[in-house]
Design a protein that fits this description.
Number of helices: 3
Number of strands: 8
Distance between the termini: 16 Å
Low-confidence stretches: 116-120
Shape: elongated
Number of domains: 2
Strand content: 35-45%
Order of helices and strands: HEEEEEEHEEH
Radius of gyration: 24 Å
Structural class: alpha+beta
Helix content: 10-25%
Largest sheet: 8 strands, antiparallel
Length: 185
């Protein structure tokens, strides 16, 4: 009986260890740059600056966004929710963000940066770079366009010691040893 239970525990730990897939963490990108008035009563005083973060998961989907605009008039943002993702037909992918007042920000990722050529792909291949940005008020009366906007991967801490498959194997081995000692004593 002991041998069967020991074999079952060992087999279970092995299945856990070798069947576990590495989690694909979100990549956090810092957004920075400036935009200029493009239409209507839009102004900047003295400049309109973008800052904030965008998170993209391993599958290429936008999972979190928080982008601020400062120095603009009329005031827009913070852009904290995803409205839609669409392909405008030029090989790029556009992410539309919104704020609580109905203002929109359009982040356009060139096809050369995301590895697509016209079809609605994902941002899974995006590793950072220059993008184009447009911002507009609900009626379109005020609009801003980018001067220079970039997304760069944010610095994140490395994995903890023992994380992942080796850690899982060590934990299963430790549990097996503890269980065997408990059964003997």
């Amino acid at each position: 009986m002991k041998l069967r239970l020991s074999a079952a525990v060992t087999a279970g730990c092995a299945l856990l260890a070798f069947g576990a897939e590495a989690a694909k963490a979100d990549t956090i990108f810092d957004i920075s740059g400036t935009v200029s008035p493009a239409f209507g009563p839009a102004t900047c005083s003295p400049t309109c600056t973008l800052s904030g973060t965008i998170a993209i998961n391993g599958g290429g989907a936008v999972t979190a966004e928080d982008v601020l605009v400062t120095g603009e008039s009329p005031s827009v943002g913070a852009f904290t929710h995803l409205v839609q993702v669409f392909a405008p037909g030029n090989g790029s992918l556009t992410v539309q963000l919104g704020d609580g007042a109905g203002d929109f920000m359009f982040l356009n990722f060139p096809g050369s940066e995301i590895g697509t050529t016209g079809s609605l792909g994902s941002l899974g291949n995006f590793t950072g770079g220059l993008i184009s940005v447009g911002i507009e008020t609900p009626s379109g009366a005020s609009q801003w366009n980018n001067n220079s906007v970039s997304l760069t991967p944010a610095a994140v801490p490395g994995p903890l010691a023992g994380a992942g498959l080796p850690g899982l194997i060590a934990v299963c081995g430790g549990l097996l040893a503890w269980w065997r000692r408990k059964r003997k004593g």
